[in-house]
Amino acid sequence: MAPPKGGYAPSLGKFLDTLKSRPVNASVESLISLLKRRQINGSEACAIATAHILLQVVAKDKWSDVNELLGRIQLVGKKLVASQPRELVIANIVRRVLGLIRDEASEDRNDNPSDSSPDHRDPMNSPLPPAASEASSPTRPVRPPGALAQLGSFARTQSMFNLLSDPDFTSPPWSNASTPGATPGIASGASTPLAHGQTTDVHAFRSEVIDGIEEIMDEIKQVDEQVQAISEIIIHPGDYILVHQPSRTVQKFLTRAASKRKFTVFLVVDPSTTSAADDAYAPFRKSMASSGSIVVTVMNVGLMAYMSKANKVILGARAITAKGGVIVDAGAAAIARAARAQGRAVVILGGVYKISSENKFQQEELIEWGDPSKYVNFADGAMVSQVKVKSAVSEFIPGGDIDTYITNLGAHTRDHLHTILTDHYKEEDMSFDIYGKGQR
Amino acid sequence: MSQNKRGGAASKGKNSGRATGEEKREDVLQAVVIADAFQTRFMPFAVEKPRCLLPLANTPLIEYTLEFLAMNGVQEVYIYCGAHHEQIERYVHDSRWSPISRSCPFSTVEFIRVADARSIGDFLRDLDKRSLIDGDFILVHGDLVANLSLDAPLAAHRARREANRDSCMTMILREAGEDEHNTKAKVVTPVFVVDPRKKRCLHYEEMNPFQSEHYVGLDPSILEDPEVEARTDLVDAEIDICTPDILALWSESFDYELPRANFLHGVLKDWELNGKMIHTEIVSEGYSARADNLRMYDAITRDILSGWTYPFTPDCNLLKGQTYQLRDDHVYQEEDVIVENSSEISDAVLGRDTQVGSNTTISNSVIGRNCKIGSNVRITDSFIWNDVSIDDGATVEHAVVADMATIGKDATVSEGSLVSFGVQIDDKTQFNTSTFRDAEDDDAETDDLSRLQKSLVYSLEEFDIDGSSVSTLADEDYLSDDDSAASLTPIHPASRSRLSSFASDDSGAPNFPSFHADAVHGLLEVLRGVSGSFDSEKLEFMSLRLANNASDAAMRRAVATAFVRRSVDLMNAEQGGLEPAKAAKQALTSRKGATEFVADVGVGGDSVVEQVEFALAVQRACVSSAKVIEITKAGNLLAAVLQQMYDLDILEEEGIVAWWGDDRGKEGKEGDAMATVRDKCQALVEWLENAEEESEDDE
């Protein structure tokens, strides 16, 4: 009897393993129930799962033209979003893929009049490759990382301008610089003579979209690396940094900074989860200590006493809304508010894929409520029956409490977020009502 | 034995599973779902719908069970259905769990129907024959709500199994504290005696408030363990990780019916014989409970509303098409719900297309889909299923209202009421507490315990818990009596608190049940010839009586019970069961001194009153014996015993005739049974009366 590694319970890894062998619809349904059961949990896992499933839809489903594909992605996207509406990254990834498809489609159409498309793209692409090699990113330059962020966003600002000026997306070919898939190598595949309008060479188109989605996946995976490159700018020697139950992104960010400078970290943990938390943060503590920085563990209750000492508060985001509000792990909102009251800087870390165009939400709707066992023991019969205990899994920080957002593109202010949004999502996808009543 | 759906998709999935070779095969986790409990606790609803399809927070119970299995990576599911199997099969077939549908996470979903099954034991014995199970499997019931992860218990189970082939089962139990807890079983308290270090379960017993003794008897060898815990603080959702050995054990013991009270108790008791070990995995995180009676249904719904079952809360929309969202005030609401502004709703679930009128208050309740609720209605702590209409001004308090029911204007459905499918309640009707409302009339249920388990509200008030007037489940006391409580000081209901304590009971109250049990036991030993003679027994009996300060009535009852039981033993003996007449004769005469004993101790005097009392005691004992033998046989036995006693001069004819005329014998609490048994004696009495007249004539 050989039990499968890591038990029987399904997880993201197991789900991804079964993707190839199963029909797309079955995979979609299985992902939906995994999301509902919260067995795929956390924004990064959700984003990766969504990207994978959409890749399967593009690769395996039968579709003959772009509109059909768009419709299909929208349908699957709606189902996924409905199964876990509070995980905004799912909708983000769906919108990214929709935008990607539109870009590819428009590019194909524009390829027709000018068959020398590679030449056209050259002026736009030339500054980027060196950046890629610098960042030693394995694939093409998805997003210029680190210090080059300024240049990158400048480039995108231009492209956005073009997008806006030309809403019928008959934009000049270099506009697709914003789409990761549009690289010279792939685009040359599109030089196969195309028929007219919509009926493109489906095969080539498909592989372009697939490449595009794969680059989105790479982007998600590289977020930690790219974000931590900025750490030296944010953290100074001798700083006192306060973090709340640091995610992997935040931990890497701090370790990277610690490799260069010495500073003190106040590690805020929830008293109810201490036993587990000690294990979880042990490697982090160790690596911080080895580089000479100090980690002070603070229980949530004693937090306010340390706030006056801290210079900066660094929090990992679950999602970032268009207006700058951030969804964080439960407990962080109070910290952000305290930091604001004391005038400390609040820094939010998170990949670009976490920025959501959605802003119609009531903030209550974004909060996920978990089971109260964190605060009340189920064995306490009197409490269970007499007291209503609400335990939040996630919390919402209003945009006003936040000073800086750090993404894989660099540091941004709240006003700048809108630019990033328009760079990454198409207007028509942003207005697409992904949360609306789906089919029942 | 009929079997359904073993062709088609199900067996195809199976074959392909087998074909992929042994290695892969071993990774498959199997589960068996028992979708019939052979109980009537969900009456009247269970008349029309099986328990596992009843909605809990607007989602059928079986959804939670299957979701739990899917969550733990189960691949093959076998569902045993009993009553309403066609409904369950249709439901699963039409749902996302159907093996044909793409969304089914299981490779196999198979229904097994056992035609002549009368208990869960029959299901498991059937499973043993089928050889479907080829490794460890999970045994659950169709009314389970749980969000536990089984990975760790499964790994621990495997490790134990590798260390010792005889550890054959792991039970998953949830700690729930020693204090009062809603989700703990209230009526029957399971007692687990566990070795905390080895996690081995050593003894299992169930206690209930009607029990005569509030003790758990432990085998002395249990106490040889260095550390033993006896725990009543556990929620037992009956999630078991079993090995195929378990099925073999079920087959060996053909009379086991219940997985806990019979099987677990028995296997642990016979540990020396079978050598099988059963372990427990006591978890303190996660949720698990069975909605196995209405009160648990109530408790689990509350737990779901307060999020204990996360992620299985209404807003996770388990079922396809559900669109619940959490609103303010802890209200889970689906789309297209119309609520008038002036109405107040808190802590509730509202299904789609439900309309709520103005000035209505709904709190702590679950309302299904497409319900029409008028204005000025008050609904508290209640469960309203689908398509119910509640008219203006009605009040529903702590009740269950099933599909399609109608509650008229200004009607009041008060605490504990159960309104079944399609029932219409007229305007301004008032219902008292705990009313059962059913479209078809429910047959009267008399057993207190099952009645308690069927009610929504746990209350012992209406029950007479004095230990003497209540029949108990324990085998030893099946001949309980119905002596009027006046002759015995009732044990105060407060003594129920002893239920969960194991300290010796040194309260001053005389313990009649224990006198009865000991006395009957002692007499039976002598009657069977196992030990002693009646001379010594008489001494012992009297000392026992003095020690317990037992009344004459209690003594009579004990003697009568013992002799009737001996007769029943003889009648039911495996080889050559005797006729009632012979059995009675043998019981009364085979042992030297028996006759005198009955005359002296049992009757205790020559007066007619005492003879009547004793005859009544015998009659009651016979009525009780009707539980093990047919009622007509019990009647015959009574006639035979009386006749024999007359012949032996224990009873005189005046006594028997006076008994015949006594009202108490005609109708007792047992109702029909007393009369039926009594009727059989008519011939005897007539004969006696004739004999009397004849003798008078002679004079």
From TrEMBL, chain A:
Any one annotated GO CC term: eukaryotic translation initiation factor 2B complex
Biased segments, Basic and acidic residues type: 105-123
Keyword line: Cytoplasm, Initiation factor, Protein biosynthesis
GO molecular function (one): translation initiation factor activity
InterPro entries per record: eIF2B_beta_subunit, IF-2B-related, IF_2B-like_C, NagB/RpiA_transferase-like
Polar residues bias: start-end ranges: 172-181
Subcellular location(s) per record: Cytoplasm, Cytosol
Region spans: Disordered: 105-147, 165-195
Pfam families: IF-2B
Primary residence: cytoplasm
Family as reported in the entry's similarity comment: Belongs to the eIF-2B alpha/beta/delta subunits family.
Quaternary organization: Component of the translation initiation factor 2B (eIF2B) complex which is a heterodecamer of two sets of five different subunits: alpha, beta, gamma, delta and epsilon. Subunits alpha, beta and delta comprise a regulatory subcomplex and subunits epsilon and gamma comprise a catalytic subcomplex. Within the complex, the hexameric regulatory complex resides at the center, with the two heterodimeric catalytic subcomplexes bound on opposite sides.
PANTHER family, per the entry: TRANSLATION INITIATION FACTOR EIF-2B SUBUNIT BETA
Protein name (Swiss-Prot/TrEMBL): Translation initiation factor eIF2B subunit beta
Organism: Anthostomella pinea
TrEMBL record, chain B:
Superkingdom of the source species: Eukaryota
UniProt keyword annotations, A-Z: Cytoplasm, Initiation factor, Protein biosynthesis
MF GO annotations: guanyl-nucleotide exchange factor activity; translation initiation factor activity; translation initiation factor binding
Keyword Protein biosynthesis attached: yes
CDD domains: eIF-2B_epsilon_N, LbH_eIF2B_epsilon, W2_eIF2B_epsilon
Gene Ontology annotations for the cellular component aspect, listed alphabetically: cytosol; eukaryotic translation initiation factor 2B complex
Disordered as annotated region, ranges: 1-23
Database matches in SMART domains: eIF5C
The W2 domain, residue ranges: 510-698
One Pfam family matching this protein: W2
UniProt KW Protein biosynthesis keyword: yes
Subcellular location per the Swiss-Prot or TrEMBL entry: Cytoplasm, Cytosol
Main location class: cytoplasm
PANTHER family given in the database record: TRANSLATION INITIATION FACTOR EIF-2B SUBUNIT EPSILON
The family this protein is said to belong to: Belongs to the eIF-2B gamma/epsilon subunits family.
Subunit structure: Component of the translation initiation factor 2B (eIF2B) complex which is a heterodecamer of two sets of five different subunits: alpha, beta, gamma, delta and epsilon. Subunits alpha, beta and delta comprise a regulatory subcomplex and subunits epsilon and gamma comprise a catalytic subcomplex. Within the complex, the hexameric regulatory complex resides at the center, with the two heterodimeric catalytic subcomplexes bound on opposite sides.
Protein name per Swiss-Prot or TrEMBL: Translation initiation factor eIF2B subunit epsilon
Species, as recorded: Anthostomella pinea
